[in-house]
Amino acid sequence: MTSLHENEIAVDEDLVRSLLRAQCPRWADLPLRAAGAGTDNTMYRLGDDLLVRLPRTADGGPSLRKEQRWLPLLAPRLPRRVPEPVHAGTPTDAYPVPWAVHRWIDGEDVGPDTVRDWDAFGADLAEFVRELHRVDLMGATREDGLSWYRGGTLAPCDEWVRPCFDACRGVEGLDLDVDTLERLWREALALPDPAGPHVWLHGDLRPANLLARDGALHAVIDFGALSVGLPDAEHAPVWDLPPEARRAYWDALALDTPTWLRARAWAIAVAVAGIPYYWHTFPEFARECRSRLAAILEATGGTEEPLADTLAP
Q1: Signal peptide: which range, if any (predicted)?
Q2: Side-chain-side CA neighbours of residue 170 (13 Å)
């Protein structure tokens, strides 16, 4: 497993097997195989029906605990499958972080070979977001692990986003119009802040966290960024989808123009931060960020196009 962070915890199959023997002996002898890794967690498939999730760093444990607490309450209220935690692993000397076992969800990576109708996919994703945002907060607030920057406003992020544009300019071979991206970010900063109520947020609805089945959206996974806050950033990852899906999503949720432009700014912020950080250590994710920014630039039409002409996705 490639290390992505300075404080990363080494994980391999032997370690996972030792955790299972100590804490889940009934599953300890099931087949175990690597099932991928994201920026925050490493996954192993356990038998046919289970998935082991292990945070890459020590500060990833609270995200798993958050999933274990809230997903059982959210799942019955949502129109697609979401992860089902079945074991809350405890830290050990060998692995000093909470870990988890979830039910395995069959599905395929979202892409042109697995999605039959992008318009329908965009509408289905919008339905999921709408229903998630409608779920009662059940007493949850932007505290106790449910506060994340993507549920806030844009302005406080400018301090760390602004240097990322210069960092991207220094990435050899990036080949993006960073000046236009920075202009779009600054124009969004000038918009009024959102005024709606706080809602439940998935926090990271990029295609890697969506599963397709029979050509349609089947499940939404990885709720490690689950939070409570303003919904603008929730819409940002649709820039990772084809234009047909973006428009269907926008139309289904009837998003107003300021919300869409703030969402686009969130998409820019996350991607320009991800490119220089992961360019060498996680090139697949860096390419994903670059594709997102390229899609924004293509839709925007370049530096000569005024803001009034950039309202369509």
Answers
A1: none
A2: 8
Q: How does 211-247 read in b/e, with b if 16+ C-beta sit within 10 Å?
A: bbeeeebbbbbbbbbbbbbbbbbbbbbbbbbbbebbb
Rg (the chain; Cα; Å): 20
* Residues of each domain in the chain carrying CATH 3.90.1200.10: 108-309
Query: What is the residue-wise DSSP string for 97-124?
Result: S-EEEEE----EE-STTT-S-HHHHHHH
DSSP letter string over 268-304?
A: HHHHHHHHHHHTTT-HHHHHHHHHHHHHHHHHHT-TT
Q: Output the pTM of the full model.
A: 0.91
Fold of 13-103: Phosphorylase Kinase; domain 1 (3.30.200)
DSSP state of 80: S
Side chain identity at residue 180, one-letter code:
T
Residue spans of alpha helices (H) in 50-157 = 61-74, 118-134
CB burial readout 148-185, b (16+ within 10 A) else e: bbbbbbbeebeeebeebbeebeebeebebebebbbebb
Residue listed under structure tokens 């544009």: 165
Tokens, residue 268: 């820019």
Q: Are strands 216-220 and 108-109 parallel, antiparallel or unpaired?
A: unpaired
242-278 per-position pLDDT tens digit = 999 999 999 999 999 999 999 999 999 999 999 998 8
Q: In whole angstroms, what is the distance from residue 71 CA to residue 20 CA?
A: 23
Which CATH number is associated with domain 108-309? 3.90.1200.10
Q: Is residue 53 classed as helix, strand or coil in its secondary structure?
A: strand
For the chain, list residues with pLDDT below 50.
Answer: 302-313
